[in-house]
Amino acid sequence: MTRDIEQRKRDHLILAQNEALNFSISAGFDRWRFIHNALPEINLDEIATRTTFLGKELQFPLLISSMSGGVEESFNFNANLATAAESVGCALGLGSIRAALENEKVRDSFLIAREKAPSTIIMANLGVAQIMGSQSMDRVAAFCHDLKANALIIHLNPLQEAFQPEGDTQFKGALNAIKTWVDEFPLPLIVKEVGQGLSIEVIQKLKGAGVETIDIAGAGGSNWISIERERLSEDQSILKQTALEFANWGEPTAEVLENLETDLCVIASGGLKQPLDLAKAIALGAHMGGVAGALLRQALTDDTEKLIEQLLVWKKTLEMAMFGVGVNKIDELIGNRSLLHKID
Predict the structure, then answer these.
(1) Nearest Cα to 94, choosing from 75, 78, 107, 106?
(2) How many Å apart are CA 201 and CA 139, to the nearest integer?
């Protein structure tokens, strides 16, 4: 089982770099543009991109979304991401910790993140199938304690699991399991999808279960159904052909934001491909944006300075967008749709 998990993580790192496996539909941010304000009545040096998340201050509202952990390649990968997050003052989500819970030898590929980022918000990550079955709460809590994690992300991925060669498709009782963990787990819980998105109805169910922070992780970026299709063997040809029908299955991130009215803390990830998408996501109602695919290739190199530079472009773009629409605080940007025009 451990070898299967490690190989899967290795496959995912390779295949997620293939843009041909992304959605062909967009996340929807290209259908919005900011309305330029030629009289902003603020000075550029007054712009503050700082925000508070999980009780800690971030220099700007960006989450490096969960990507990997549990294989040899992940050690340097997560070290690079953590170093960059610490440098620029954004948050970091780690890949699924299942491998570390089942194999002591790969723990360091996760724990290196806290070593490199002593003050950064770091979130562990585990699939809902694991909290329903194989992983005890005490064991997960102990690992999160060692990691000094600030929160635990629970990811929902029913269709990814359905097309995954090793997939676990037992999802009955998932909402009750989430409620139990919200009530009893010692850290805040965040619930996310992995790229097919959370619908408005599902978000309301999660709120009813006591979840306070959600990550939409919508359609528009990497499509994990398409990625799992590449991992299917030729004797699974029916499933491989079926996966083609789901190449654009999911809820585009910007469309969910557009129709979402909630008092939950909302992270918008999934298809944020350009730095300006972060500013648009926040104006549409997100408190933070999440980025993974746009950073993946750079993070796999050992050039951490280039990764930091890439993240600082996202931060500077947000700052300039705020100046361009005439707001000087993140709270004035969140959900301020009057700053946007929808392109028909």
Answers:
(1) 78
(2) 32
Token pair recorded at residue 343: 């392109």
Among residues 106, 112, 68, 66, the alpha carbon closest in space to that of 86 is found at 112
> What distance in Å separates the CA atoms of residue 70 and residue 292, rounded to the nearest whole number?
17
Q: Which amino acid is at 330?
A: I
Q: Does residue 336 sit in helix, strand or coil?
A: coil
The amino acid sitting at 40 is: P
Q: Is 338 helix (H, G, I), strand (E, B) or coil?
A: helix
Is the CB of residue 266 less than 8 Å from the CB of residue 204?
no
Entry pTM: 0.95
What distances in angstroms separate CA 328 from CA 47, 256, 331, one per listed residue?
4, 26, 9
∠ CA(271), CA(233), CA(103), 5° rounding? 75
Tokens of 222: 């990497």
pLDDT (tens digit, 9 = 90+) per residue, 135-161? 789 999 999 999 999 999 999 999 999
Q: Burial code of 48-85, b = ≥16 C-beta within 10 A, e = fewer?
A: ebebebeeeebbbbbbbbbbbbbbebbbbbbbbbbbbb
- Residue-wise pLDDT for 206-231, tens only, equals 999 999 999 999 999 999 999 999 99
Between the alpha carbon of residue 244 and those of residues 24, 50, 117, 218, 327, the distances in Å are 12, 42, 40, 18, 44
What contacts 293, CB < 8 A, 6 or more positions away?
16, 22, 221, 222, 273
Domains of the chain, each with CATH number or no CATH: 2-342 (3.20.20.70)
Query: Cα(254)–Cα(23) distance, rounded to whole angstroms?
Result: 14
- Contact between residue 340 and residue 254 where contact means Cβ atoms under 8 Å apart: no
